[in-house]
Amino acid sequence: MPSGWRAVTCLPTTSAACTGSSKRDGKMRGVEDAPLACLDANVFLAVLIPAATTAAREEITGAERVLRAVEEGRLRGVSTTIVFGEICYVYLREGKPGFEIARAAIEAEPNLKAVAVTAPLAVHAAELRRKYYSKKNPFSYNDGLYLATGLAERANLLITS
User: Fold this and answer.
1) Which residue of 2, 50, 106, 157 is 20 to 30 Å from 74, comparing CA positions?
2) How far is CA 14 from the centre of its chain?
């Protein structure tokens, strides 16, 4: 997320890992070398509207660290375009203004890619839901879309709350 946007919406993170400067320390590597993480809407929502999530404080802090790492190029992010619908829904449900600003910030982040849902991606998501859903594991279709996106983009990890 652009620095100005994060400064307005995020609490300062005190972790040395997040506040250290890789460039200053001579350890900067190219963004293309950074791990690729598939991010679901909960990562963004924990930072954008923490009071509207069921995330614990540790998860909110973790989401802040993840988004800061993406902003700084230590991590590349990928998500599916349904992230905008999920985030918009929470803004609407909570009666909060600011969705368009959040959307613009997400779209403007150069280290974050939003992948459009295609027919093959949607079908793969359905297959993943069928494979992983159970009464003990409430794996949603949206979860399947994030996982299918991460697999299609060859993400190193999937981050959620």
Assistant:
1) 50
2) 20
